[in-house]
């Protein structure tokens, strides 16, 4: 395969939405005890984070994994068993690399251990073990939970019994993960819990809980308030998990900046709290068409078509916009680099506490490619150019990913899009599997060789 294809064309089915799939898997523990008629959850193209969370839920005893292949995960959801470890010998669940898995499980376990004796410890890989967990633990403690972190990070232990009560809380960070954790806990907290966020965040929790019959509402914008009344039980229902908007993002940017591209992405999630990248790219001049599907589940989906856009305008992303684009910012940096003029990202310091310091690594990647970028404490400034390099004159350079899937995929797209005069090689391309196991195969499949010079 050419790393620098002359054309990108074809159809790509992106992996399952990992926010939605992990919420549904974790909900399997909260649907009541040992369900008589257990529902099945079917997840097509599960990434490694989804699989980690499925294994954690199986180890908890809440579900069985009936099918697990590269293309399909089928789980039967039974509800959590009565016994969940013991205070002197906690059950240990490994969340792998998944921040969503660990944080949402903290809330779900606080709910499960509200009225039972037991203890569960959540662990993760080295990246996850360096990420902040007090942002979830502290508000859960305010609800009555007994949670210990290790100096603010994993391992995290939740101990019961610790009865919960409803709260009215304003969170300092617009985090959908913290919001979701508190919503899971609120199911076990009698009364009305109100959670106010300083800005927008993805609303998968509200959609999924409402789909499962829970009284939950979100109001306001850009500051949002979610209200949920407990005690409540999730009535699990079968539904199809759409493709992940953040995985589709790589192809949206790739086709937009590549000089000759035409890609079709069927069954991608179109949740309005996740489509900011489409709006942003269109604002820059991208050629994107969206055709919605007929859907009945909690999440809308549709087919996205995207073609090359010869001239892109620069853009500034700041304030509340950063939360709507939080996982897409490393790949959006490439669109900024391909636009004629200076683009800016501000107010995105949150990127520094993801799987890696994504501000530092994105800037290092662009610098290695010869792109004019300045790192700032909460973002970057990029002076882009519409120039493309169909052949690579400069020698390839390897960049650091720190095991971050989104940096590894951005590096491959940076090379494939002809944005730089050299190939940029991720030091660990396989970490893409965290969210997108088939990424390299999909890139190969849409690559047309023609007479493209090989690199
Ligand atoms: O709720 C979710 O599923 C997620 C929320 C975001 O994290 P924060 O809530 O920490 O911003 C996002 O970065 C993550 O990939 C998934
Ligand atoms: C930040 C991410 O995921 P998580 O927080 O679930 O590890 C991501 O997928 O970009």
Would you write up a description of this structure?
The protein has two domains: 7-16 and 242-448, Enolpyruvate transferase domain (UDP-n-acetylglucosamine1-carboxyvinyl-transferase, Chain); 18-223, UDP-n-acetylglucosamine1-carboxyvinyl-transferase, Chain (Alpha-beta prism), CATH 3.65.10. With 455 residues, the protein is an alpha+beta fold. The longest helix is centred in the first third of the chain and has 14 residues, at 99-112. Mean pLDDT is 95; it is low at 451-455. It has 13 helices and 22 strands. A five-stranded mixed β-sheet has the order 14-15-13-1-22. 29% of the residues lie in helices and 25% in strands. The termini are close together. It has helices spanning 18-27, 48-60, 99-112, 134-142, 176-186, 204-211, 245-257, 276-284, 321-324, 329-337, 358-368, 405-416, 439-445, and strands at 7-11, 40-44, 63-68, 72-77, 91-94, 118-123, 146-150, 153-160, 168-170, 191-197, 216-219, 224-230, 261-269, 287-292, 301-307, 316-317, 341-345, 372-376, 379-384, 397-399, 424-426, 447-448. The site of phosphoenolpyruvate has 9 residues, from helix 3. The site of shikimate-3-phosphate (S3P) has 9 residues, from helix 5.
Q: What topology, given as strand order, has the largest sheet?
A: 14-15-13-1-22
What is the assembly state of the chains in this entry?
Answer: single chain
The coarse overall form would be globular
Number of helices: 13
Q: Estimate the helix proportion, in percent.
A: 25-40%
As residue ranges, the low-confidence spans are 451-455
Could you tell me the mean pLDDT? 95
Distance between the termini: 10 Å
CATH class of the largest domain: Alpha Beta
Quantity of strands, as a count: 22
Content of β-strand: 25-35%
Report the CATH superfamily of the largest domain.
Answer: Enolpyruvate transferase domain
Major sheet attributes: 5 strands, mixed
What name is given to the CATH topology of the largest domain?
UDP-n-acetylglucosamine1-carboxyvinyl-transferase, Chain
Please give the radius of gyration in angstroms: 22 Å
Helix/strand-derived category reads alpha+beta
CATH architectural group of the largest domain? Alpha-beta prism
């Amino acid at each position: 395969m050419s790393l620098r294809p002359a054309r990108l064309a074809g159809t790509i089915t992106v992996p399952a939405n990992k926010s939605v799939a992990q919420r549904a898997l974790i909900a399997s523990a909260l649907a009541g005890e040992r369900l008589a008629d257990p529902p099945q959850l079917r997840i097509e193209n599960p990434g490694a984070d989804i699989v980690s969370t499925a294994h954690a839920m199986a180890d908890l005893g809440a579900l069985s994994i009936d099918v697990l292949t590269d293309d399909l995960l089928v789980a039967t959801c039974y509800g959590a068993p009565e016994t969940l470890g013991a205070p002197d010998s906690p059950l240990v669940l490994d969340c792998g690399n998944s921040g969503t898995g660990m944080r949402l499980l903290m809330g779900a376990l606080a709910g499960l251990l509200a009225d039972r004796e037991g203890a569960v410890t959540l662990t993760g890989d080295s990246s996850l073990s360096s990420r902040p967990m007090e942002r979830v633990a502290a508000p859960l403690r305010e609800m009555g939970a007994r949670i210990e972190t290790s100096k603010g990070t994993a391992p995290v232990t939740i101990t019961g019994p610790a009865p919960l009560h409803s709260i009215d809380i304003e969170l300092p960070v617009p985090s959908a993960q913290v919001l979701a954790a508190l919503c899971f806990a609120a199911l076990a907290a009698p009364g009305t819990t109100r959670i106010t966020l300083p800005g927008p965040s993805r609303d998968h929790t509200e959609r999924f809980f409402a789909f499962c019959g829970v009284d939950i509402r979100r109001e306001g914008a850009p500051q949002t308030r979610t209200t949920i009344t407990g005690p409540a039980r999730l009535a699990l229902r079968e539904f199809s998990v759409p493709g992940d908007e953040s995985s589709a993002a790589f192809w949206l940017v790739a086709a937009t900046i590549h000089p000759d591209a035409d890609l079709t992405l069927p069954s991608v999630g179109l949740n309005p709290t996740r489509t900011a990248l489409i709006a942003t790219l269109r604002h820059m001049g991208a050629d994107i068409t969206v055709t919605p599907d007929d859907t009945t589940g909690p999440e809308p989906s549709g087919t996205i078509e995207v073609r090359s856009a010869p001239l892109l305008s620069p853009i500034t992303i700041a304030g509340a916009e950063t939360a709507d684009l939080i996982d897409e910012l490393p790949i959006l940096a490439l669109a900024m680099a391909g636009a004629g003029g200076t683009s800016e990202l501000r107010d995105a310091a949150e990127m520094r506490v993801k799987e890696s310091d994504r501000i530092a690594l994105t800037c290092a990647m662009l610098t290695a490619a010869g792109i004019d970028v300045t790192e700032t404490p909460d973002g970057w400034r990029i002076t882009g150019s519409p120039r493309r390099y169909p052949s690579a004159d400069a020698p390839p350079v390897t960049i650091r990913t720190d095991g971050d899937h989104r940096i590894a995929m951005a590096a491959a797209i940076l090379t494939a899009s002809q944005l730089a005069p050299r190939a940029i090689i991720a030091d660990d391309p396989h970490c893409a599997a965290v969210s997108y196991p088939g990424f390299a195969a999909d890139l190969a499949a849409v690559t047309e060789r023609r007479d493209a010079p090989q690199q």
